[in-house]
């Protein structure tokens, strides 16, 4: 009997270690985009790698389609560790970490390739570090590509004057409201999930985004005109709750960084394919793609770059210098 009890006592801590190791960390990943979207696919692949490389110590579950809430809500949950990882637009990070607004400025990147070079290089890492080193309680790990954003509206915008007075949805960031107002529109901030019905009911006359979002969030059902202003090219950070990060071993932290960076590179190929396919589908569904002179939009938004960019003049010069 005594022997048996000793054995039990000896085995117990071992059993505990085993079972806690088997479920050391469960990652819930929140995404506003639906299943099959480039970011979702790349993040799921990242999760599979994490599970495999951690011998089951880390589990990963994707919650796509906004089921855990809007990006703002999800960020709040990540801050307290209730959601472990997410990807959000940099747009909604700006009001909390103003330094990231350098990337949120209209026409700050020459084109899509320029943005990609920046996020892959040292400036991209610096902006991730700004998020990590802020009071946000998040660790910013990598960038997803969110393409180039243009205007879509219920009535055509063929020149900047046509935008006058139109109510256009933007993300909740004062910079974007200023940007839309500077272009002559009437900026209205709301969450992604509210756009569809706001378009249908006429609360807004349009929004601005990339072709995959116009398609996959069904905004094209009301907004049939896509005016290629290309005014914003917003990269999208993948973040982990610092509360979660602190529970990882140094080896696991290195692993998370590595697979997140791999997801950054993988998503880009998915993005290009999805953008091309979306364009085809949108055109087939009757959406008119309107080529427009970008210069008036660029000129109109100069005061916005001045207002938000003056204090980051050096950084903006470094961005412009990247070829
Ligand atoms: C999409 C971004 C997503 C944003 C959305 C928006 O990928 O993160 O939530 O735009 O504007 O392009 O709300």
Explain how this protein is built.
The protein is of the alpha/beta class. The protein is built from 13 helices and eleven strands. Helix 2 packs antiparallel against helix 10. The N and C termini lie far apart (about 75 Å). About 45% of the residues are buried. The protein binds beta-D-glucopyranuronic acid (BDP). The site of beta-D-glucopyranuronic acid (BDP) has 11 residues, from loops.
Quickly describe the structure.
This protein is α/β, with parallel strands linked by helices and 323 residues long. Helices cover 46% and strands 17% of the residues. Strands 2-1-3-10-4 form a five-stranded mixed sheet, with helices on both faces. The protein has a four-stranded mixed sheet with strand order 8-5-9-11. It has a two-stranded parallel sheet with strand order 6-7.
